[in-house]
């Protein structure tokens, strides 16, 4: 079994919507600024923790795959907003799904976590170490935002997305992937937490530090290199690509990436206007919506590119 076929997909988007105008009632910002600089019109705000959203997305993915939760042998959750530091979100999902035997762990490559997860889960399936894997990207970013800081408060939203990967002989799943980290730029996107408790105290609000234009520059460069590598590895060109699913952090950055990959707008999956940046969840949520809307169809070839704090970067060619 050489491939990790995507047999299930599911998402969870909390019903509460916060529009740009809602934000402008308590922040010195405007719908016009947010729309033109980021492409965001509204975002979702969760009343429940990351693991609850993750479990809903997982149940939907299991249903799509026609799989029982007991059959899973690995549960991998990409998140930078876990409910607790220990135990991890993956174990909460495992308990709530009723699985007793799978390995379960979280990974944090910030917004790149889901593609990182697909990369390593695919390798694990190829070696035979695992056969049926549940990968989730889930975030409750609104819980940790400083709502008095307009620079960051307008950018993020909550949500979760999941995929089931199963060992298969059918050429499918992640055909090539490249993940990397530009650690010299660790400080351009930082949310100090965990071991920094002593320095900041903990009242549920953390200082989110980032240098937007530096992230923009480095993200474009990192994604460009990663995309070139996956094209070279597969021998594919942009003519072979049916759609581009990018990380949803900024509409201008997505447009830039689409131009770089020579993918036309109608083939680029964009939903940032509805959900903002949901970090590790943007890729699986966008994949689910693209499938539901018929933008991504069976047999399609997709290129994906992501970036996040670290600065982590990655790209993948996905065959569905
Ligand atoms: N409403 C109104 N004005 C604002 C807001 C706001 N919400 N936020 C910032 N401003 C003001 C600033 O104070 C500044 O005012 P000044 O010129 O008087 O000093 C002005 O707008 C311009 O601020 P910049 O930070 O230079 O704005 P920029 O055009 O760079 O846009 C953004 C910021 C959207 C973050 C952009 O840099 C970007 O998308 N970067 C890449 C993605 C990113 O950084 N995402 C966040 C981190 S998460 C991740 O990317 C994985």
Looking at this structure, what is the CATH superfamily of the largest domain?
Thiolase/Chalcone synthase
Unreliably modeled segments:
none
- Helix content range: 25-40%
Structural class estimated from helices and strands = alpha/beta
CATH topology of the largest domain: Peroxisomal Thiolase, Chain A, domain 1
Distance between the termini: 16 Å
Mind telling me the C-alpha Rg? 18 Å
Number of helices: 11
CATH class assignment of the largest domain: Alpha Beta
SSE series: EEHHEHEHEHEHEEEHEHEHHHEE
> What proportion strand?
25-35%
**Number of strand elements:** 13
- For the biggest β-sheet, the strand order reads 1-7-6-4-5
Q: Identify the bound ligands.
A: acetyl coenzyme *A
Give a nutshell description of this structure:
By secondary structure, the chain is α/β, with parallel strands linked by helices. The protein is 34% helix and 25% strand. The chain has two domains: 3-170, Thiolase/Chalcone synthase (Peroxisomal Thiolase, Chain A, domain 1); 174-319, Thiolase/Chalcone synthase (Peroxisomal Thiolase, Chain A, domain 1, 3-Layer(aba) Sandwich), CATH 3.40.47.10.
Q: What key phrases describe this protein's structure?
A:
320 residues, Peroxisomal Thiolase, Chain A, domain 1, four-stranded mixed sheet, 34% helix, binds acetyl coenzyme *A
Describe the structure.
By secondary structure, this protein is α/β, with parallel strands linked by helices. The chain has two domains: 3-170, Thiolase/Chalcone synthase (Peroxisomal Thiolase, Chain A, domain 1); 174-319, 3-Layer(aba) Sandwich (Peroxisomal Thiolase, Chain A, domain 1). It has helices at residues 20-24, 31-38, 50-65, 89-97, 113-127, 150-153, 197-200, 212-234, 251-261, 272-275, 282-292; strands at residues 3-12, 17-19, 42-44, 74-78, 103-107, 132-140, 158-168, 173-181, 189-191, 208-210, 243-246, 301-308, 312-319. The strands form four sheets. Strands 1-7-6-4-5 form a five-stranded mixed beta sheet, sandwiched between helices. A four-stranded mixed beta sheet has the order 8-13-12-11, with helices on both faces. The protein is globular, with a radius of gyration of 18 Å. The protein binds acetyl coenzyme *A (ACO). Acetyl coenzyme *A (ACO) binds at residues 29, 33-34, 37-38, 111, 150-151, 154-155, 189, 210, 212-213, 215-216, 249-250, 253, 277, 307-308.
